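I'm curious: can you give me some protein's one-letter sequence along with its backbone structure tokens because I've never seen that pairing?
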Amino acid sequence: MDVFGLLGNPVGHSLSPPMHEAAYDELGLEARYVAFEPDVDDLEAAIDGARALGITGLNVTIPFKQDVLESDAVAVDEMATRIGAVNTIDFSGERPTGHNTDASGALRALREHDVVVEGATAVVVGAGGAGRAISFGLADAGATVEIANRTEESAHELAAEVPNATGHGLEDGTLEDLLAEADILVNATSVGMEEDATPVPADALHDELAVLDAVYRPLETRLLRDAADVGATTVDGAWMLLYQGVEAFELWTGRDAPVASMNDALRSRL
């Protein structure tokens, strides 16, 4: 039996176990997905222990996503190094390899809704972990990226790393100006999580936008309601969560993921 899992602290809230277990059931795989919660100082021991026990793959979440980069136990691939975080570890090689599937997960979420990324102008609100991953993913896929962040210096610092990107603050009128000519808007902040709030003025939205909100609790955020009201394409955060898991599953197993089953399992718990 193959054993996969999640490394984090805390992990009790995670939706990854039911999503991955649904994939194993659909494909008839002899596999299980287990949540592991080591002490925050025991990352190296946890990775070494997983390898010794023959665990096939691990997802990584808070507070370990950045720490894995500095771990001698893991070889980190180029994309995860650029993003500055690892969310997936593959144990199939001679040495565990760290990857980041957040960028590709966001792209697949957009493409699921027929959003064309190549040649698009994308506005990413937020320069934290999600903003970094999504900005790199969009740029690598051929988009021009405008990064807007409350702390303007952070937006400029990220834009200096991301190809074909520019950083901006969030002073009055900035988002309205950026979005007037934009094709894609991504909320990569936590604004709207379990609250009726939005980081983007409703009057800045228009019907030619595709709007991805990385927040998935609630599924229909105020930003997405405002976007739907003007006829924009809306992509809720569960699609990004789903596809980062799909990417990990396919990396570990070498098989096409049963996306519909994983999606059903995920959404039934939101």
Q: What stands out?
A: The chain is about 40% helix and 20% strand.
